[in-house]
From TrEMBL:
GO terms for molecular function: sodium:proton antiporter activity. The keyword Cytoplasm does not apply. Keywords: Membrane, Transmembrane, Transmembrane helix. It comes from Corynebacterium sanguinis. Belongs to the CPA3 antiporters (TC 2.A.63) subunit G family. This is Cation:proton antiporter. The chain crosses the membrane at residues 6-26, 38-59, 71-89. PANTHER family: ANTIPORTER SUBUNIT MNHG2-RELATED (PTHR34703:SF1). NCBIfam families: PRK12592.1. It holds the Pfam family PhaG_MnhG_YufB. The keyword DNA-binding does not apply.
Amino acid sequence: MITDVISLIFILPGAFMVLSAAVGAVRFRSTMARIHAITKPQTTGLVLMVVGTLIRLIGAEDFSFHERGDIGILILLTIFALMTSPVTAQRLGRVARLEGLYGDEDELTVNQNPARNP
């Protein structure tokens, strides 16, 4: 019973973050805002939901040797998401910059103090 409550404490905010990532991908207009909306809260939400699921699995009364494989799969899923999400965001940002897909010119801001090369 207590593990169910603790797992819900992790799963519900994680599900909300994944939902907010989906809403952000639809609502935001520029490419950079969409990349940010897809990568940051989606990965954090996934980690929270996996932690909640691990707590639920380990705290179950019928937890046995066979469920240990499920824990390994969840851990591998989390590691894979944490490794690929930043790389995907960086690559999408670079392609958007090279192709000029940032968005409308009137929605972009100008950097008044760009970095200077020594």
